[in-house]
Design a protein that fits this description.
Elements lengths: L8 E6 L6 H16 L4 E6 L13 E4 L8 H22 L3 E5 L1 H14 L4 E6 L3 H7 L4 H13 L5 E4 L2 H11 L6 E3 L6 H7 L15 E5 L8 H11 L6 E5 L5 H11 L5 E5 L5 H5 L3 E4 L8 H8 L4 E4 L16 E3 L4 H13 L1 H14 L5 H14 L1
Helix pairs in contact: 1-14, 2-3, 3-5, 8-9, 8-12
């Protein structure tokens, strides 16, 4: 149960409620607060118009009207335009607290709050290991600028929520963030909703046969390293008949499809695109695979576990063991080693008893990530401020 907050109004600042992990975290927290704190006024700021009611709750929304893409000059202009719009909203709404998600939102929320003159308490959340992200986009001038702004501004937040110990350590050691400001809070999951959605019907024929299915869910981008999974799957070709199903979209999609053709496995790999409900595919798969170079938390790991799907994952961050206890409720393999990944997948595919044991232990583990539990931890941070 969430301990009641003294604050009367909290503004959530989120780029969108559609898409990635941080957006789903915001949606889940909004729903949890709405149920557990009915006297609390929740207010949502989005970086573009969308239907707030799509996520199952009805709260007041304000939209920042900016185009998504443009030149570097426009990007800078958009940055200041968003800050001015936010400052105006904060001044008009007079929130007691602001809770922002993702680094761009965090930066503009800190500055916008200062310029509003109202000085609400600001809690920012960090969902990825920033050194890995800034290294990946090191050639992008704007991304490099964001790294500088993080170092300059994050210490001006009232609290910084990191989704894992790795993210917290990175903030302290590489960005100079005061450790006393940092709280480690895992991502929340509505387990009841996930399991309900997992029961929905699946149309794709590949799920109607008896072929073992390895499932991957996530953006098809370089940091997810899906190519490693494709190569690992090709190593299994001689040992068993199985299918690899990939859910997601991204800039590496054509490369991955060509890689499948080059490896001669294109008939056994199925690219199904982005799915609003990946859980029904998790429910009907045999093994879940995560092959990322790095993750901040790895939402899909908990989601797969909640759907009763055994997991094989790369050691994409050190504290991944907070979720996967190796050889107890899943398997962890080294990053970018397709032979190790293939061996782990083969072990699970060939051993139904091991799969069932992992599933049983995983079901116990995911209970600590219930949305009610995590929302209570966010509530304590907001209340303590």
């Amino acid at each position: 149960m969430i301990m009641h907050l003294k604050q009367k109004k909290i503004i959530f600042v989120v780029p969108s409620l559609k898409g990635g992990g941080a957006e789903r975290v915001a949606t889940t927290l909004l729903e949890s607060f709405r149920k557990s704190e009915p006297e609390l006024e929740l207010f949502l700021v989005l970086f573009g118009e969308e239907v707030c009611g799509e996520s199952g709750f009805n709260i007041r929304c304000r939209y920042l009207h900016v185009h998504e893409r443009g030149s570097l000059l426009y990007t800078v202009f958009k940055f200041f335009k968003i800050i001015i719009q936010l400052a105006r909203i904060f001044k008009e709404e007079s929130p007691s607290a602001i809770l922002s998600f993702m680094d761009y939102s965090n930066i503009v929320s800190i500055v916008g709050n200062y310029l509003s003159g109202k000085r609400a308490r600001v809690v920012i959340s960090v969902h990825t290991k920033l050194t890995a992200l800034t290294r990946q986009y090191s050639s992008d001038k704007w991304e490099r600028s964001l790294g500088v702004l993080i170092k300059r501004l994050y210490n001006h937040a009232d609290s910084v929520v990191a989704v894992s110990r790795d993210v917290a350590d990175d903030l302290e050691k590489n960005f100079g963030i005061d450790r006393n400001l940092i709280q480690v809070i895992s991502n929340p999951f509505d387990l009841k909703k996930i399991r309900c959605l997992s029961e929905e019907h699946v149309m794709e024929n590949i799920f109607k046969g008896n072929i073992p299915i390895i499932l991957s869910v996530g953006r098809l981008s370089s940091e997810k390293n899906v190519g490693c999974l494709v190569k690992a799957f090709s190593l299994l070709k001689a040992d068993l008949k199985a299918a690899l199903v990939i859910l997601g979209e991204g800039e590496e999609e054509q490369y991955l499809k060509q890689l499948c053709r080059d490896l001669g496995i294109e008939k056994n790999v199925f690219f199904l695109g982005y799915k609003d409900n990946p859980f029904k595919y998790m429910k009907r798969s045999t093994v879940f695979a995560l092959s990322s170079f790095y993750e901040g938390f790895g939402n899909v790991i908990v989601e797969a576990m909640a759907c009763g799907l055994p997991v094989v994952a790369t050691r994409s961050y050190e504290s991944i063991e907070d979720i996967i206890e190796n050889d107890r409720n899943g398997l962890i393999v080294p990053v970018a080693e397709e032979k190790a990944l293939a061996d782990a997948l083969l072990r699970l595919l060939n051993n139904p008893e091991v799969r069932e044991r992992y599933i049983s232990e995983a079901m116990k583990k995911v209970e600590c990530y219930r949305s009610e539990t995590i929302a209570a931890q966010y509530g304590k941070v907001l209340r303590d401020l």
